[in-house]
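SEQUENCE AND FOLD
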Amino acid sequence: MATRTTSRSKGKNTPTFECSECGWQTVKWVGRCPECQSWGTVQEKGQVTARTTAASNLAAPAQAIGDVDASVAEFRATGIGELDRVLGGGLVPGAVILLAGEPGVGKSTLLLQVASAVAKAHTDHPVLYLTGEESAAQVKKRAERIEAMSDSLYLAAESDLGQALGQIEQISPQLTIMDSVQTLSSAEVDGAAGGVTQIREVTASMIEAAKRRNMATILVGHVTKDGNIAGPRMLEHLVDVVCQFEGDRHSRLRLLRAVKNRYGPTDDVGCFDLNEGGLTSLADPSGLFVSALTDRVPGTCITITLEGRRPLTAEVQALVAESPASQPRRAVSGLDSPRVSMLLAVLQRRARLATLFKSETYVATVGGVKITEPAADLSIALAVASAALEKPLPNRFVAFGEVGLAGEVRPVPGLQRRLQEAQRLGFTHAIVPRGAEKSDIPEGMRVREIGSLPEAMGLLLDGGPAQASQN
């Protein structure tokens, strides 16, 4: 008896399924998306369409690279210094920027100030602010509070993509801000606003309009509870620049980072101060992260941390107190808790600080700054040791270096920039890892190189504050 076989023809259409959360696609239905681990989000999207044929008439024929006019892609300053710093010089005509951040961090306030500054600088070219989350009256009240009014700034409360594109065609702005991309939807596409299909359509339409009109565009994006940008990952690939706006609700400091930038670097950070009058650029924010104490107090140490290419001064404070409990408490704020626990273990074993076994230890930064780089290890260890031994560290002194489990102090990148920033702020003494070049040490700065944590403690806590020598 012959075996019956079935085969699919080469051109036969097969059903396609897509996850409504992340956009992952498959040829068969599954209950749980393997990409985002969401249940019940994989839905059928119809049949595979035919292949697109080549166009017979080209709207924009290819040019030789030497004939392309590059002047249209030059940076234009926004008037917000810290934003221009992160973007690499300003806005590029035709660029599409995605700005993401947690709710209440100040995204809308920043962009309203940007819209006003650009409108005031170029009164002959209007700026369009599209809001899908607030009414035009609400946006105007905020603009009056932060003094962001301008006759060349236009507001429109739109949640329909077709209406938003119509506003752009009518006003012909030099800059369009859409707050936010998750609130707009197209009537010609299935799905609710904020879904994968709608976000893809909204983003693609705005990018097409921006490139065709040489119009700078800023899209506001929501974030998930994990801090990732909501919507399909493709959203970040489509835009030219992706920026993250960060900040603690209980702190006035706000940080702007570029995680993707086709026109500039991604290793810089912009600092802002959030107050009643809006956001103020902080060209020199180091004073926010250092306490105002003038007397030497045990348990404090200054370090220089690098946020991208930008050196920032930060102060680490530690408090060590006897505990009646069998398991002493250890609390950390502004630092990586597992790394602080590791440094406490190194201090106990390598530096012979046995009192830490039965003492409560509290370690925190000043001003709400968050430090994650290993270069702050040495300052954390010295602050804890100073608090445990009740011996203050010297004035006008900084320390930075990575501490290993064997107690060794390893070199850190950007040594010259750290020392130059310390000297600019009036610090005269520094402890750095061994191996520094002579050219890295600024003239007049007394720098001492060390190779281990016990060596640093013996130099500062036992030998006195002013025994650092010029290398």
Notes: The mean pLDDT is 87. The domain at 288-462 is CATH 3.30.230.10 (Ribosomal Protein S5; domain 2).
